[in-house]
Write a structure and sequence with these properties.
16% strand; 16 strands; eight-stranded mixed sheet; Rossmann fold; 15 helices; 2 domains
């Protein structure tokens, strides 16, 4: 028998910002699995919104990145998530996966690892596959359709892989017995290689101390908090390595940072260069609100900041409690002056011993270690399936 086949239905683009999906998919392919990585499904209208994808939409969409890793960009008919179109697009998706597997000369999948909210519909087309819900976030849009699709995913899944304790609890409440808490990891080597090249040149015009945030500009950010803290410490420079998320373009028009001269939004940067920005920061923070979505999250870039040796100030979300020795965690009741005090302490925490401890913590939580745990979890599921069949 060859390597087990995993169809990983994601909500990301392989060549876009790297989230946990790309890290886990690529590393599973080096751990005894064949991985078909399904990107965020698009429609024939998508090139208008994502011009860089036009070539793939018009040409060959299946890319073989190695003998055990392939990436495909599925297509659907718009509007993909309209109730009347979901069944049609589910059949198109299953047909596309079968086409891909034939092209790759791979058998039917052993596992359906589902992150995209409509991906659970693949289960009907591959009844022998074990369905594993990959819960990386809570439901973002709290509409009935979003919650219904999440409920359908949980109802179809036999197992769940979750980035935070609240998501583990959600899977347990849905009756899923096999659950794995798999927090975010870190690409330690990439951070180190970038940092070795020195701070990013476009930081040269930004004064110090620099307090960094890496991520999209979305309503997840507590803009009132940012404004209050930046106003309280006008000499501090707050740097955002990211840009307004396409789903929230209205933020660009309203200037959520209210024209603060000590808040610098640099825009998106290549993941290979993130370490250069971290190398130029004196501390980092995650000024998020206490929304249901945020509380269930595990902010990806915190581990990158720790890998760079930076002190981090962040909300005390459940997924971050294990970082307590390396991250200053702010309770929900914390006000702007409390954040100012915590950031003041973080800026003074430059001892080599503290920096080394943060880097050691991050190194012990690499994506390699996360992929090892996921591989073991799937292998155990496969063995239990074989025993049940026997």
């Amino acid at each position: 028998m060859g390597e087990p086949v995993v169809v990983f239905a994601t909500n990301v683009l392989w060549d876009g910002i790297w989230y946990g999906a790309q890290h886990l998919g690529s590393r599973l392919a080096h751990r005894g699995f064949r991985v078909l990585f399904l990107e965020l499904p698009m429609t024939v209208a998508s090139p208008l919104r994502h011009p860089v994808r036009a070539r793939e939409l018009l040409g060959r969409r299946l890319r073989e990145l190695g003998p055990t890793l392939a990436v495909d960009l599925p297509l659907g008919l718009p509007p993909q998530e309209h109730p009347r179109m979901r069944g049609v697009n589910a059949r198109l998706l299953a047909r596309r996966v079968r086409h891909d597997l034939r092209r790759l000369a791979w058998p039917d999948p052993d596992f359906l690892l589902i992150r995209h909210r409509l991906g659970w519909r693949l289960a009907a087309g591959f009844p022998t596959a074990r369905v594993v819900a990959n819960l990386s976030d809570a439901v973002y849009f709290a509409d009935d359709d979003g919650r219904d699709e999440r409920a359908s995913l949980l109802a179809s899944a036999e197992a769940a892989v979750c980035v935070s304790p609240p998501l583990v609890a959600e899977a347990a409440e849905a009756g899923i017995r096999d659950r794995l808490l798999l927090p975010q990891g870190v690409d330690f080597a990439t951070i180190d290689r970038a940092a070795a090249r020195g701070p990013a040149p476009d930081l040269a015009g930004v004064g110090q101390p620099r307090i960094g945030f890496v991520g999209h500009v979305t309503p997840r950010i507590d803009f009132d908090l940012v404004e209050e803290v930046a106003s309280a410490r006008p000499a501090w420079q707050f740097v955002v390595v990211g840009d307004v998320h396409p789903l929230f373009e209205e933020l660009r028009r309203h200037d959520p940072f209210r024209g603060r001269v000590n808040v610098h939004v640099l825009g998106l940067r290549d993941r290979a260069d993130v370490g250069r920005y971290l190398a130029g920061f004196d501390a980092a923070w995650v000024p998020y609100t206490w929304s249901e979505f945020n509380v269930a999250s595990n902010p990806l870039k915190i581990m990158d900041c720790l890998a760079a040796g930076l002190p981090v100030v962040a909300p005390a979300f459940p997924a971050l409690v294990d970082n307590a020795a390396d991250t200053a965690l702010m309770p929900e009741t914390a006000k702007a002056p409390d954040w100012v005090d915590a950031l003041e302490r973080a800026l003074g925490d430059s001892a080599d011993e503290a920096r080394a401890a943060r880097r050691a913590f991050a190194a012990a939580n690499s994506w390699e270690s996360r992929a090892d745990r996921l591989a073991s979890f799937l292998q155990d599921l496969g063995r239990s399936a074989a025993q049940d069949a026997g």
